[in-house]
Each structure stands twice: as C-alpha cells, then as structure tokens.
Amino acid sequence: MKITKHIIEKHGLNLEEFKSIQKLLKRDPNLLELGVFSAMWNEHCSYKSSRLHLKKLPTKGKQVIQGPGENAGVIDIGDDDAIVFKIESHNHPSYIEPYQGAATGVGGILRDVFTMGARPIALLNSIHFGSPSHPKTKTLLNGVVSGIGGYGNCIGIPTVAGETKFNETYNENILVNAMAVGHAQKSKIFYSKAKGINKSVVYVGSKTGRDGIHGASMASAEFDENSEEKKPTVQVGDPFTEKLLLEACLELMKDDSIIAIQDMGAAGLTSSSVEMASKGSLGIELELDKVPCREENMTPYEMMLSESQERMLIILEDGKESHARKIFEKWDLDFVVIGKTTNTKNLIMKFKNKTEGIIPIEALASKAPIYDRKWSKKKQSKKKIELKSLKKVGLEEGLIKILSSPNHSNKSWVTNQYDQMVMCDTAQRSGSDAAIIRIHKKNKAIAVSVDSSANYCKSHPITGGKQIVCENWRNIISVGARPLAITNCLNFGNPENSEVMGEFAECLDGIKEACEFLNYPVVSGNVSFYNGTNKKNIFPTPVIGGVGLIKKLSKPMNHYFKSEKSNILLIGKTFGHLEQSCFLKENFSIIEGIPPEINLVNEKNNGEIILKLINNGLIKSVHDVSNGGLLVALSEMSIGTNFGIKIQKPKKLTNLTGYFFGEDQGRYVIEIDPSNLDKVVKLLNENNIYHDNLGVTQKEFFEIEDEMKISNKELFKVNNHWYNNF
Amino acid sequence: MKSSVIVFPGSNCDRDIAVALEKLQFKNKMVWHKETSLPKSDLIVIPGGFSYGDYLRSGAIAGKSLIIDEVIKAANSGCLVLGICNGFQILTETGLLKGTLLRNKNLRFINRDVNIKVINNQTKFSSKYKSNQILKINIAHNEGNYFTNSKHLDQLKKDNLIAFKYCDENGNINESSNPNGALENIAGIYNTKKNILGMMPHPERMVDDIISNTDGISLFSGLIN
To answer: What's phi and psi for A600, nearest 5 deg?
Structure first.
C-alpha cells in the first residue's frame, strides 16, 4: 500500500513530520508503522507543544517520591505510606459519547494509579459544560454524571469531591477531567521501566477489539461538524472487568514477580510497549497473533492501535509465569505471553511468523518532535467597573441571584449519584472545601480537592494560574490538612494559535510561581490541547488537584456553623475587588477587567495561621472565601445548619458591595467559641494577620444589621432548586 | 460467633462488612464464589457491590453461582443470613426471600443517608433496637425499589416480616420519605423463619463515628450471644 498525502493527513501527521519519519527509518514506513508513529507522535502522547513549557514547573520536594513521567505521581505521607495520584482529561470522547467517554475517563485514571501498586481510595472530577440553555447541555450533563457514577460505583471506589461548572465557552467542547488517588506501601511501588533481556511480556485483562482505534489522535484534533462521525473511536468501559483486573494486579504485586507494568491507555499496546522499552533502553518484540482478540480477523494495525479498555502489559521475572497465570485465571482474565524484551532497541511487530514492522524505539519516544510554538503575551485589560453606573442591587438580592445560579446551586443532584461512602473511609464527603479520606485502619487521613478558574485565567493567565493553586491550597488547609503536592490537567485550545499558546505559557508561569512559593510541587498531570471547534477555542482551563495530610484525624473539620453565639472572624484583608466577580456576572452579566491580585506572602501566612488554629482546637468551623466573596462564604456556612449570622457592617465602609461580594484572595472565615476569642485574636496579632471581627452566629436567621435578614430555610430553598428544575 | 462473607467477582462492600464484623469480635472468613463448601458459620453475609457486573440483572448470575447452593442449604437449616444491597438482590434471585428490587423510581443511582424505622425488633438481627427506633443509614443503589405481589405483601404484614421502612427524621413514612419508590417504603424484609434478612441500606457503613455514625452497630452486636 502506497502511503499518500491523504493517508498521512488521516493519521494526524503533517508532511514535515512524515519527512522526519522517513529520515529516522531511512525508508518509507508501511501502514502499520505509520499508524504506530501517529499514535506516539500525536499531541496527547508526545506532549510536543507543551513539553518545553512543562519543564519549568517545580516537581521536587522532600515529600515527592515520584514526579511526572510515570503513570502517576507518588508522595510520602509518613511511615511506610505513600499516596499515588493523577488527573487526566477525557474531553473529546465525552462530548461525542457522554456516558462511555466519562466512564472510560474514570477507568483510565484508575489504571494509572493501581498500575503503580496502589489501591485506589478516592475519585474526584472536574466537569465543565456549556451554557445551561444550550440544547446539548442537559444530555451531556446527564450522560457524563451517570458515566462517572456508573464506573466508580461499580468498581467500588468512592467519588468524593469535584466541581461541576457551566460556561458558554464549553458549548461545543465540554471538559471531563477525572482524578484518582491511591494508597500504597512506600516499599512496594511499581514502575514502568523494563529491565533485562529475554523477559516475558505478558498481556492481561480484557480482549482487544476495534474500539478506540486512533482515540489518541482524535483527542489531538479539533472538532468540526463531522465530529459525530467519530463515535466508533470512543472506547467502551467495563468497570466489572476493571475491578477484576485491579484485584488480580494487586494480588500479583504482593510479591516480586513484576519487573515493570504499564496500563494500555491512550494508544493502547503501542504506547505501553514503547514506553516500557524506552525507559529501560531496551527493545521489545511482539507476536501479535497471540493478542487475545474480541473480534475476528483483526489486523496487526488494529491490534497495535486499539484502545480497548481494562488491559495491562507486564514484564515478568523469570520463572514467575505459572504463579502469575494462576492469579489471573482465578479472576477469569486473559493472561498471554505476547512477546519478550530484547537488546535490539527496536519495536518489532510480528504476525504469523512474519515481521510486519520494525521501528527504533528512540524514533518513537525521544526523537518525537518537540515544538517551540509561537506565543503571545496577553494584553492586560485596564477596564474598571464603576458601580455607580449600574443599577443598585441590594445585598440580599445580589446574594440570592448568586446562590440560585447554576454555578452556585447545591450540587447534591450530581453528588448523590456517586457512591461516596464505599470503602468506609470517607470522613468528609463532597460539599465541603475538601474531602477527607482516612488511610485504612490508621488514624491519619488525606484531604483532596480539585479547582479551576477559567474566567480568571482568560482575563489574566498568570494571575489565574497562581489563583487556582492558591485556592486549592486554601481548600486543603480549610479541613485541617497540610498541603503536600498537586496534579494538573491543562485544558486549552489549539496550540498552533499563538494566543492560546500564550495563555498556556502564562498560566504555567502563574502555577509555577505559586507552587514554588507554597512548596506545593506538581507530581503528575496531563495536557489537553485542541479544545474548541471551528477555530473557537475554549477559555484556558487548567484544573488543579491537590492532596494534603492530616496526621491525626480526630474530628473532621468542615465549613458548617456548629452553634449559636459563636464569634465570626474574617481572616485576610478585603479591598473590594469586583472585576471578574460572580456578583457582576450573575447580576449584570459583566465578565470584565482583571481578576483579584494574589499576594503569595499573605496567602502563606494566612494559611499557616489557619492550620495552627485548627491544630490547637481553637476553631469550630472554617471556610475559605472564594467565588462570590464574603457573603456567599457566610451563606455556605449557614445553609444546611440551624445557625445563621448576626453581623454588623464595618464602620466607615465606603463600598458595601465590594466588601461583601469582592473576591479578594487569601481570606478565610472562622467560627470560634467566645471563650477562645482573646486567645485567637492575640495569636492573630502576634503573627501580624489582618482580621475583621464580623459578629456572631444566631439561630435560624441570616442577618446583616440594617441591610438584610433572611431565614436559613429560605436560603436553603433558593440554593436548592436549580438542578431539580433543570 | 463465626461469620462468613461470600465474595463474588464484582462484590465491593466485602471488605467493609469484614471490617465491621471484626470490629464487633466476629471470627470472620471470606469465602470465594468458586468454593463448594462453607466454613462452619453462625452468620453468612452476602455483601453489596456489583456481582458479575450486575450483567443480565442485578444478582441474577450470583444467584446461580457454585457457593450459593451451600448458602441455601445453610439458610434452610436455620443459619443466620444477611444480604445487604446487592446481597438483598441476590437473596431474592435465589428465592430465599420473595419479591424483587426494581430500578429506583427516578432512574438514577442514589447515594445518601436516609432515615429508616425499625418495624420489627423481635428478631435476632433487631433485638438491640427499640421498636420504631429511627436510624440514619447510608443507601447506595440503582435498583432498590422493592416490589412484591399483594398476597406476599399481606403475609409480610401479617407475620411481621417487614424489618425496616424508609421514613423522615420524625418517623413519618410517606412518599416524600421514600427515596427509591419501594412498595410501602420497605427497606428490608425477613423470611418467614426470620433467620434471613435482606436490606438495601448499608449498616456496615455506620459503625464508626469519625466516618458517619454508629446506628448500624446494634444490628451486628445483637447477633453476638
């Protein structure tokens, strides 16, 4: 078969790249080889546009056992315990087939975690849909939520936290990011680096079908009117088989039979075999007629590129074959030796004793193209919003508008579809600043949260990048955990567009600066480019997933008011920054100006003092002040409890709206017992922490003197109706 | 007190129930579905999860598995059997309990804490609860909508075989306190000899204050002589 220009383009490669392939092979590739190159050289697998920028992220720290480059990141949480975690996108498949797209997104990220020897203990997600009024939104929301639930519930791993957001920028390109967190013994972590020659390469798990062929290349192309035609490239998930695979792998991992293990994710058998060989500087030889197939007459091309789910590739120690086989047979899973490691440094693909393709491993891995794409700096908006020019909106009216909006409504319609309790270690479920998961049979716990701020990132990518890291840090702190490390999912538009590339570069600058300052390194992540349709790119949407440690879990800290007559303090200074605020967006549809500034010094000091107060048992509840500002934070602390607030406006306040709705950063609201007030204030003063004494909690009413008074029940009602009526 | 937890491929609450049983001093053993004999047990638990992926119909394939014949034999000779969630579905598939679990009325998976009322506190499973005591227990299922024919329903009532009913926090049993559409808010039932209990709520999730509450403890502690 002659490789034509048309075939090359169909594989998502350009002519320059094809020429490089010819040069590397010193000949023309055949179709199988071209397919393998396209799978390895696409954006999704090669990170060709992002690699140069990703290098600047901080990835090291005392707490880091394994940074980016493996299946997932690994951090140390003391004793022999390690936490393994990663976030990944499944945006394109989920738009085409929401249930399966989201479900396999969850399945894929779980495999990344248990491949490393960790038992998954929590799932999180960040899902972004278009405007609620867009005709597709309802179907997509329904499909994605039930897909996430369908997979996690069945495999029996709790889905404990996440965010569900709406913004018209995602009308034609939704975002589905799934994060998995696992627990492993530090001394029992498994990696993907192959070692030794003539070792058995074993295929385990589900059989290979024709689903998902070229899935990774699909994820690296923009959508157009014909995207619906891509349905056959969406994989189908089987959480039941994944549960068997999980148990079988963990059983085999109890001893030292495994040299290297890699899940077959994007680009399936191709990327798993190439990655293991590449990391070990070895070659790998596959006999493709041995691959267990689900369908008849599958060709080597289809086998190498299939993205059928729930499969793993393992390199076994000599003499361990029958032991390993027994385990997989017990779980009714396929177990077939399909090849061996070699010293040729080539990927050799054989079929019925005939060599069908030979490619040097380094041509697929280290020699893959890297692009220094053009990028342009974001022009800064100087726009200031003059409140005087707008219709007057009272505090109560403004608050109700925000609390009843899709983005701020109570999300139990979503979270009640996820099993949050299975495994019986979820000490705090979704709805709080971060979820808390106890380490099984121990009294330590981890806190987890995912966050994003697309509007902030769009208007000022550097500040936006910093802000998400800080917001995530704050969420982890707010439940009394020491933030340790993050994973990131970088959802952006077309990297060939210099403006998009600029957003990417600048968001990363922001993330880097905050992570460095807060000692909050990035240990794993994923880049998803080409989010957009017909040249319309989505807002830059980096998503940060953070993990923190609670050394001794006694009573989980959360944001709900606990009693009446407590003192309420606001930690951190309020300037009244309204540009890019929810207040302006929900009340006036204004999304303009630059987001609030981040002051990393204050951020750190305020966070540290909150941790100290929690650890000294001086706080009854705490909530970080984020979207919507102070008033929304206070209402969130009241809703769902019997306690509201009775507070006074600060004296000499010039900008009431700015004080209560401004989104200045680095702030927390804390509830303290009156008997501790002096002690807390003294501590705050000693540490030069700015704070306002707002007032007290009271029964059943939410009240700001001379401004508003509304019952808790009414607040609950306005916050609860949107999803149920959608 | 000896207990056995049956493990099917796809069971996922097996570890949770084992932890709860061990916490309450049961000597527990896990029994793989391919086994053909049961260890000597005073209590057999069929745990929650998605046995065999819930393919075909929830509990249908597990109801025909190798070990299940032994469970039926033991149950018929009076051994205590507890089926939770998927375990309840499996028990109805085997015929040890009558009726069936249909899809939730809202056609969605539901996970949340609900209130249930102890209807019969005169059995080995419920003797530590007060009559009409209200418990807060977690549910997590797609098919928890209990249904049976009117003749069986009459028998359930006449012989006091309804174990728990969904209610609100004040004990009201009505449509708004019914999470899944179950017939007469039924959350759990006994067989006529009252040695078999099937229930949709998860008592094993309610044995630890740090995680939830301890409303489930009495169900297990009541079984220890």
So the answer is: -65, -30
A505 touches A375 (CB < 8 A): yes
Mind telling me how many Å the CA of B109 is from chain A's nearest CA? Answer: 5
How would DSSP label each residue in B84-112?
Answer: ETHHHHHHHHHTSS-SEEEPPTTSS-EEE
- Cβ(A430)–Cβ(A411) under 8 Å? yes
CB contact under 8 A, A423 and B112: no
Q: Which domains does chain B have, with CATH numbers?
A: 2-224 (3.40.50.880)
CA distances from A347 to A85, A192, A350 (A): 30, 16, 10
pTM > 0.80:
yes
B152 classed as catalytic: no
Once rounded to an integer, what is the mean pLDDT over residues B201-206?
A: 98
State the greatest distance between any 2 C-alpha atoms of chain A, in Å, as a whole number.
86
Q: What residues are paired with A286 via a beta bridge?
A: A339, A349
CB distance A243–B13 less than 8 Å?
no
- Tell me the C-alpha distance between A250 and A255, whole Å: 10
Model confidence at A97, pLDDT cuts 50, 70, 90, reads: very high
The confidence score (pLDDT) of residue A215 equals 61
Strand partners, A571: A668, A691
Known catalytic residue: B167?
no
Strand partners, A672: A567
Q: What is this model's ipTM? A: 0.97
Using CB atoms, pick whichever of B19, B20, B53 lies closest to residue A240.
B53
Q: Which residues of B touch A417 (CB under 8 A)?
A: 108-111
- Residues A423 and B148: their CA atoms lie apart, in Å, by 31
pLDDT (tens digit, 9 = 90+) per residue, A250-281?
Answer: 999 999 999 999 999 888 999 999 999 999 99
